[in-house]
Amino acid sequence: MRVDRDRDTLQSPTLPGLYPVGEGAGFAGGIMSAALDGIRAAEAIARVAAG
C-alpha cells in the first residue's frame, strides 16, 4: 500500500498532519532509506511546529 504525500510538505494531501513515511507507506526501499525518510519527515514536522 502506498499513501500519497505532498512533495514539499511531506504530508498526506487528504489528511493534513499525517506524514506517511518508511516501508509501510511505500516511500522506502530498505532499512537505511526508511530511516532517512523518517528523518526528513521529522524535519518537516519541526518546520511546521516552528511556524
Helix content: 40-55%
Using the CA coordinates, give the radius of gyration.
11 Å
* Major sheet details: none
Oligomer: single chain
Overall mean confidence score, pLDDT: 89
Terminal-residue CA separation: 31 Å
Number of β-strand runs: 0
Category from helices, strands and their pairing = mainly alpha
Low-confidence stretches: none
Number of helices: 2
Outline type: flat
3D architecture notes:
Helices cover 47% and strands 0% of the residues. The protein has one domain. The radius of gyration is 11 Å and the shape is flat. It starts with 21 loop residues before the first helix and ends with a helix. The longest helix is centred in the C-terminal third of the chain and has 20 residues. With 51 residues, the protein is mostly helical.
